[in-house]
């Protein structure tokens, strides 16, 4: 009986991944170019991972950054991803502080122009 109750509690609370606190990323678009960034990152923050998903599709474009690319007021490196005009996209990325190891996650939803 206790195991059944415990299982129900886990099922009702959802996945732990759903509890990640997201901050809002900023998006600028000009001449078909997209710049996703956050002006709230620390100066020691580097891009760690990104995910791009076209709304309504299950495929995801995921990149784990291996080199240090500083994130402070820098556009997220899109690694050649091509946005198609008039489609909605969800973009998320994480940064990690090289000094203290803290991690932040940012996300934005936008329609490509």
From TrEMBL:
Domain DUF7480 intervals: 25-111
Entry superkingdom: Bacteria
Classification via InterPro entries: DUF7480, T6SS_periplasmic_put
Pfam families: DUF7480
Name of the protein described by the UniProt record: DUF7480 domain-containing protein
Species of the source: Rahnella perminowiae
